[in-house]
Amino acid sequence: MRKLLLKASLHLIAALPLAVVQVLGSLLGMLAYVGSKQYRSLFRPQYESVVNARKLPLKLWSAIRASGMLFSDSLWIWRNPQKALKRVEVQNWDVVETAIHEDHGLVMLTPHLGGFEIIPRVLAQHFPATILYRPSRQEWLNEVVEEGRAYPNIHFVPTNLNGVRQMTRALTRGEAIGILPYSITVSVGYGLGWLAAHIPNSRARVVKTNLRLCFPHLTEIEIDNLALEHWKLFGRSVESNAAGFGLELGTKFFLSFPSALRLILAMENPAS
């Protein structure tokens, strides 16, 4: 029932002008803030922390309305991609073209600012791209989101190990990938660490040897589990640093492990 209602709402929004959709989104944002204690407890502290850190004027209700418009804009873009693209003005696109033509892959950090759902559609006009996203825990909602986001030349992958493998392969093909430059990258880092832990190399042996010396009372299974946690945290640190200083460098560092690409291929094609 909820899925049908949401789809009906999408069809309704698609038929409305964007200005009307944004008014509705503004109202939804205010209703969500007033009606949900949990939403208020998450929204206000985060907003105020940014305002205080950047010494910006406090415009709480403007931010609340904008958050609702962000949601309604996304729904409108899903159903009206061509109309949305006509409204887009891209600056310094030559920088992107130069980077993608180097054939080393392109990492694009795409934060949730404004109508961020338009970004994959802009990329798709020029080259294929793989976009990382976090699937909804509710299956019915996830189906609606995937259907709305579907677009030619764009491949959405989830924030799990399979998604990490697909992004890595896209980079090795010289294609573009898009990720969020904050919490979701933690999942990517854990995935990189998991892969690093299962690649035979001297570094992995050194980690386990050190753990045996420091914790002689642990069993081999406990040593293996502790080593895995080490590599997951290591992968997260690489990802975190990469988000700030260049994700491409972090990815290249990960791929410098011996047999990394062969392991990825073997995991995707276990029969071969």
3D architecture notes:
It is a single chain. The chain folds into 2 domains: 2-86, no CATH class; 93-268, no CATH class. 68% of the residues lie in helices and 7% in strands. It contains 14 helices and 4 strands. It is globular, with a radius of gyration of 22 Å. The protein starts with a helix and ends with a helix.
Basic shape: globular
* Oligomerization: single chain
How many helices in DSSP terms? 14
Compute the gyration radius: what is it?
Answer: 22 Å
What is the β-strand count?
A: 4
Spatially, the strands of the biggest sheet line up as 1-4-2-3
The sequence of SSEs as H and E is: HHHHHHEHEHEHEHHHHH
Largest sheet descriptor: 4 strands, parallel
Give the structural class.
alpha/beta
End-to-end distance: 44 Å
Please, how many domains? 2
Mean pLDDT: 77
Residue ranges: pLDDT <50 for 5 or more in a row?
241-268
Strand content is: 5-15%
Q: Estimate percent helicity.
A: 55-70%
